[in-house]
Amino acid sequence: MLKRGKKDYEKSEEVDRMANFKGHALPGSFFLLFGLWWSVKYPLQYLSQKLNKKSHRTHYFQRVDAIEGGIKILFSLIGMLAEQFVPDGPHLYLYSGEKRDWVKLMNWQHSTMYLFYGLSGVVDVLTCMSQVVPQGLDRLMLSVAVFVEGCLFYYHVLHRPMLDQHIHSLLLIAIFAGAGSILLEVFLRDNIILEMFRASMTIVQGTWFWQIGVVLFQPWGGPVWDENDHSNIMFLTMCFFWHWAASVAIVSVNYTLAYCCLQRFRRGSGEPYICLGVRQQKCDSSSQAAFLNGSDEE
């Protein structure tokens, strides 16, 4: 009986570990997908509108924003349902029993985070569908959602072991940096620097969520990290900035690929290049030649 009970305990512990890992991998995947998408979308939008500010491309990107808002709503619903209705989830019960004990507050915190991102998606859709919605409200709501995420995770790890607190505090750097840059976008609309910074911070969030899950819950087995070893703290701090460097590299590569693709498309379709300086110089030289020819005839 004792042997079987030990096996059941180990099995239950493994199920809990995988559930906690999935709780970090799911939002990590969402953030990573959005970060990668933004690192492609905003360079395309910026470079394609550099010459054609009043073309059909503006309406095209507005439509893309509406679809993006719908996807954000869908992802948020999936996240909330997953947090609430997993086998050991709260199933919409906030407290239970005669003592009214709280039920799975960690899942409720994750659900709250998804709720605000869902509201951000709703504002995105309304902004694209109606001109009554003030410009910049979509960015403001997204900034609020990211700020709420940061506050939730700050109080998520209080009184936890040192390693757990530290690895989550590194995540807060990316969260609050992203919230601040998005807030600036309310006043500096369509600023490519802020948009690319937001994309890089979102990628860092996504990859670091996965890193947290791997370090704390070992989904594929392996030795447990010593929570009191200061060397682990030093390594994870360094590792976080490796994630940041990788996100900057990804954003830079995607911007370069977007530029090259648009240049090739323009070259094939006969449209002018994005390099306005070269084009203007050619126009000036041709007009100067025409003027000299006219003066020679006179």
Q: Trace the largest sheet across and list its strands.
A: 1-2
Low-pLDDT windows of residues: 1-6, 8-12, 276-292
SSE sequence, one letter per element: HHEEHHHHHH
The helix fraction, in percent, is: over 70%
Q: What is the residue-mean pLDDT, rounded to a whole number? A: 83
Kindly state the number of beta strands.
2
**Strand-residue fraction?**
under 5%
The helix count comes to 8
Coarse shape: globular
Structural class: mainly alpha
What does this structure look like?
- This protein has 298 residues and is mainly α.
- The protein is built from eight helices and two strands; from the N terminus they run ααββαααααα.
- The protein has a two-stranded antiparallel sheet.
- Helix 1 runs antiparallel to helix 6, helix 1 packs parallel to helix 7 and helix 4 (137-154) packs antiparallel against helix 5.
- The longest helix is centred in the N-terminal third of the chain and has 47 residues, at 2-48.
- It starts with a helix and ends with a helix.
- The model is unreliable at 1-6, 8-12 and 276-292 (pLDDT under 50).
List the topology elements.
Layout: H1 2-48, H2 56-85, E1 95-96, E2 101-102, H3 105-129, H4 137-154, H5 162-187, H6 192-217, H7 230-269, H8 276-297
Antiparallel strand pairs: 1-2
Short description:
This protein is mainly α and 298 residues long.
